[in-house]
Amino acid sequence: MKIRGITFFLLIISTVHSIAQEKFELSDCLVYTLNNSPKLKAEKLSQEKETITLYDQKSTFLPQIDAFLNYHNYFSDLPTYIFPQQEGSILAGETLPGPYPVQLGLPHNLNTGLEISQTIFDMNFFGNENFGQHYQAYKDIKLSMAEEEILYQVSVLFYQIAVNEEKLTFLNLNLDRLIKLQSIVKLQAEQGFAKQTDLDKLLVKTSNLKSKKNKLQSGIKQQMGYLKLMMGMEQSSEIALSYDQNKRLNSNETSLEKEELLSEKMLDEQRELNKMNAKKINADYYPKLQAYAAFLFQAQRDRLNFLESNQDWYNIHQWGLKLSVPIMRGFEKKTKKEISEIVDAQLSFGIQQKKEQSQMEFQNAIAELEVARIEQESQQENVELAERMFAQSELSYEQGTMLLMDFLDSEATLRESKMMFATALLDTRMAELKILKASGKLKELVNQ
Predict the structure, then answer these.
(1) Residue 124's closest CA among 341, 291, 276?
(2) Secondary structure letter of residue 82 according to DSSP
(3) What is the pTM of this model?
(4) Among 25, 258, 285, 350, which residue has the fewest nearby CB atoms (within 10 Å)?
């Protein structure tokens, strides 16, 4: 009764634990990743920063308003101005030959005002009207590429963990079988029906199998921690992966047609942006026209009493146009133009190379998948054969017509066959992921 009570208690704990663990299929992991991945959040923040930088560049074409306040003091002599003889004699109150030096002004001077300027014509503004559109497309593609890359990494890790858990299940089954066999062989050895060396060999095999189990469990734990990290999930969260080994990622990956990849689209947008930059360089050869207005207020005092109400202020208001025509800037523009032409040639070459490389990767992925599926089918047949051999060996051992070591060899063969089948299954899933990525359809896994 005590044993039954303990067993029932452990069963309840196991049931509660399994309920607490949330089941995650691959699509669940991918959706969670899109909403919580730290890498994607960092990429979005980076793009927000770039958007603000772009707006800051556009703001130079908007009205500019500056207020200023300037105070200065002539602590020694006042400024001296030179006047012709006729005007100078009047200001100086005496007649002298030649020009007249006259000191003008007061010791304390305060100038304040408001200046407004507005760009009327600048080819940097009118020649890049499509820059914002291409830049937004470039950012969208960059974010989609970051999403695709993290989804691929999560998918790979998901299947690695799932297959390792399958291997762990095989090890647990074999380990349970060997532990049960220990009690039988031990009893036989005590009664003289089995050798002590057989029991020792069984204990060694059991110990080795436990060591493999511990290493595999440790590896799964590390992989699960890394999976949570990529998904943006707390390490303390308890999740379990739901995995159907017979479910393909796509009904027929080999019939997929390759679409234009995000990496190819990004190079196209980079080339367009480089063309826009070339237009900006050419725009520096055009004149620039700017309108401005200034509202200035000036005061001069013998003493520092600018705030007294009975003192006069003098106003100077003006507006005007400023036309600047570039004539000579060294070889700066010529150098920038040559660099832009080289970058355009590099991007054009890169686009062609990327298309050829992507097509080759797509064809290689298809070939890899065909080989992986053949290997999977072969290993499946080996597992079925090993299971039949093990069933026959188990029966022969129970009937006493097979030695213990031969039975253990049969058990090891079955275990190895299942391990190799699990590895072949993982290779198949990896090849399917490569095809989806190479064809530009990896994000379809989110909706499966």
Answers:
(1) 276
(2) E
(3) 0.74
(4) 285
DSSP 119-145: EEE-HHHHTTTTHHHHHHHHHHHHHHH
Q: Which two tokens stand for residue 102?
A: 């006259």
Distance of CA 431 to the CA centre of its chain: 23
Question: Is residue 131 a contact partner of residue 125, using CB atoms and an 8 Å limit?
Answer: no
